[in-house]
Each structure stands twice: as structure tokens, then as C-alpha cells.
Amino acid sequence: MLQDTRARCGTAPGYKNISKLGPEERKDSVVGVYESFLDLSALLAGDGDEDDLFSDEERVSLQTPSPAMSRTDKRGANVRHAFFLFLKSFIGGAVLALPSAFYNGGVMATSVTVLATSVWNFYCMFLLYQSGLRNNIYTLGGLASTVGRPLTIACEVSLVVTQCSFCVTYFIFFTDCFATAMKWLLHCNAPDLTAYIYLGQIMIFSPVCLVRKLDKLAVPAIIADILIITCVFYLLSSYIWYIETDGTGEHVPWMTGSAVGSAMGTSIFAFEGVGMVLPVAGCMESPSLFPRVLLPVGVLLSLLYIAVGGLGVLAYGNQTSTTALLNLSTSEPNSPMPVVVQLFWCISLLVTFPIQIAPAFTSVERVFVLSRSCSDVFRVSIVVVLGALSFLFRNSFSQFIALSGVFCCLPLAFIYPPIIHLYVAAGTPKEIALDVGLLILGAVVMCYVTVTTFTSTPAASPEIPCNR
Known about the structure:
By secondary structure, this protein is mainly α. Helix content is 71%, strand content 0%. It has helices at residues 5-11, 24-27, 30-43, 50-53, 56-62, 67-70, 79-88, 98-105, 107-135, 140-147, 149-185, 194-208, 218-246, 260-270, 277-282, 291-316, 328-331, 337-368, 372-392, 397-424, 429-455.
């Protein structure tokens, strides 16, 4: 029987409080908010049942209320906390792929595509939120189960594959940034370290992914997000400085119709975050206030993505790299700052990788009921497979992101929410017609992006010269 997620967020004894951890001074702290996010990340994979989220040892400890839990306020997260939690789930490695997508699709065409994708995506999130609010269910799996087992399985599979595809991009981003930084540090005399960097990542990620209590990563996650924000702001400031100093790059494309589908797939990939809608809304003090979170996050992300993608192409033109941070080495060849920023991003990826892959692990392990030792072997095996996939797709990165967007993220963002809303929330002919229309539009876009991604040839990433 489905239980109210809001009860699990702090109003029911014996359950881990997701949005408020500890006494008043702690629950409003940065660490407390990050622990909330990590708990919501765990909730992403399940239908909300505590058996899906915790091991036997953890469940025993949770069933014995601690003094901190007994003092917990009954309130949920306020709008400010919810805004932070929701926004955080979108800011990641996908930002680095945007300049390449803008170059392939054209600055103007891709800007319009990003805006259209944002409006469409966040409206579907609103439909999902509305369905959860009307039925008092605040997990994607819980809502899907009210429609039927096939949709539940589809949501589970899509979530798992989406999380894994994001982790593949982590491998590639890390390799690109770390190899470029090593070339600069070794005065351009570094050998080809690509295979060794991939192997090193597997050796690092494998033991880290055995961590099951994600709240232990709260402080490292804070550091990682500070590094990511620093990198994004430095990237934007470098674009502006480079344009003001040297003007726009050569051969800036404004409309490239043949590759707009691929750019759309990348933008869908960048906006993926539908799995966090219901957990964040359900853990708010008043879930009816969630639209106050949804709208500003959508506007802010749209502006950020257009700024990073558009300015990147304007700055470097036909020299735009597949990974945005790599271009910094060409504009500032004698400065150590590009290398520092690239290493910052590598550190953030090392910390956030286990958080990104955790929902996939939890979902699969729940289905197959693995023992602790089998679970450890399974997790390490998945890391090895993801590393191998990233090595295979490293030279066709743009197509990989576009196809991941259309096959993994698009169903989650644009197809499942209308289906759920149609079954559990639509009550008027207008709502039914709109849901059906969104379903048809999602299917058409999926076919269009798939065909254009396979038939178009995105521009190859230019070789980044080492000028030190």
C-alpha cells in the first residue's frame, strides 16, 4: 500500500526525515540542506518505501528514534530550501556540452530550441506535480504504479538508463579535462594518457560507489558544487572577456537546420530532472507552493544554458570544442587558471559520480534482492561497463548525448508525465485533449531527433593545440 511521502519527510516516527535533519540550527544549515538532497536522490529510485532505501543495518537504526529525531520540527522544507534542492539537480556536466550543441545546431536555432524545450519540459513537470498533489503521492514510481505495472517498469528502466548515461558523460568529461591539464603541466610533452585515465577512473569510482549512506557525502558534495559554480562563472567570464578582446570567432553558425535535432537531444539531456519533482514537492512545508520553485528554476536554467552555449560559440566559432572547458587553454595559453578550472571540474566529478549512480544501483538491487557481497560485485561491474562504454563513445560524444537525451530523458520528461496525468488527474475534455496532444508531440519529436541525429554529421571537435 502506498504511503504518503510527506509523512516520510518528518511527520511519521521511525522514518528518516528528508528535509529537516537534527535541531533547528542544523536543519537550516548548508550541510543539512545537502543531506536533504542526498536523501531525495535515494528516494528517486524507489516508490518511496523505506525498504527500498536502506540496508537492514540502516533500517534497524532508523526504527530506534534518536534524540535528534525526537526534537525534529514537523515542518517541511520552505520555498528557499526547495528552490536550492531542485536547482542543484540540474547543474552538472551537461553544461559543458552546450557550446558544441549550439555550434552544430546554430546559435539562433538552438537558442529557440532550448527555450521551447524548457517551456515544454517544465510544463510536463507541472503536470506531474499536479498529479502527485491531487493523489497525495510524491514519488514517480508511486504515481506510475497507479497507472499500471508496465508504466512502472518503463519509469524504472528509463531512470536507471538515464543515470547511467549521465555517468558515461562523467568519464568523458573527466578524461578530456584531465588530459588537457596534464599536457599543460608537462609543457606539452605528455604522452597519450587516455586509456590510463579511463582505467584510473574505474579504480577510483569502484570503491567510492560502494558507499551506501549518501549523507556521508554531504560535505564533499558542498565542495563539489562550489567548484562547479566557480567553473561555470569563470567559463562565462572568459567568454565575455575573449569576445571583448578578440571579437567573435570565425564562421559562427546561426541556423543549421540539419543538426537542430541533435541540438534538441542535447538540450533535453541538459534539462533532465523530472525524477526530483515529486520528492522535492512532497517534502515542502506546503506542496501547493511548489510552482513558486518550478517557474524561477526554469527561467534561470534557460538563461544559463543559452548564455553558456551561445557565448561559447560566439567566442570560439568553428574552434568550439566538444567539452567547453578545453577551449580555455587556447584563449589563455600562458595562464594557469584554465588548468585550475579543469582540475576543479575533475574533482567535482569524482565526488558527484557516486551520488549520480546511486539511484540506478538502488533500483536494480531492489528488483533482484542482492546480498551485500553480490551487490558490491554488481556495483563494481557496472562501473567497469560504464567506463568501457565511455571509452567506445569518446569520439562520437555529441551523438551519444543527443541519443541519450531522446531515448532516456525524453520519455521521462515528455511522455510519462502526460500519461500519468491523463490517468490520475485529467478531469475535463480540455485536459484530456492536452495530455493526448503532448503524447503525440513527444512521439513525433522522438522520431525526428532520432532520424536527424543518425543522418546528420556534427562537426568534429577541433584539436586543442598546446601553446605553452
